[in-house]
Amino acid sequence: MRDSTAALSTDRDLWPALRRGFSRKCPNCGSGPMLKSYLKVRDTCPVCREDLSHHRADDGPAYLTILLVGHLMAPLLHIVFVQWRPEPLVLFTIFAIGTIALSLYLLPRLKGAIVAFQWARLMHGFGNRA
Predict the structure, then answer these.
(1) Ranges of each domain in the chain
(2) Which regions in the chain score pLDDT beneath 70?
């Protein structure tokens, strides 16, 4: 019991870290950019020097992006089709562009949020103090 309480007390604040991660900023300081390209996570924050190399985001951001985009666009597609009955080519074009744009917008933000979650919960070596 005592060990689990000690582990919980060393956790960092989750919601501020998730907000910073979603905005693609360092979960520690909120100032430095977490990503150095579209999806490449920096090894360290250029502002506070927080080590971010321990992240293990892997396929999580892609799965979450597919989940969110699918759950938003599928009902919207159905509603638009039933209400206005647009031509199939128009419907396809609008929803293809919308799906791609939403996916490209969400993917780096969800990656930042996953890395920030791991940082806040001291997962995968983030809790090790060297």
Answers:
(1) 13-120
(2) 1-10, 129-130
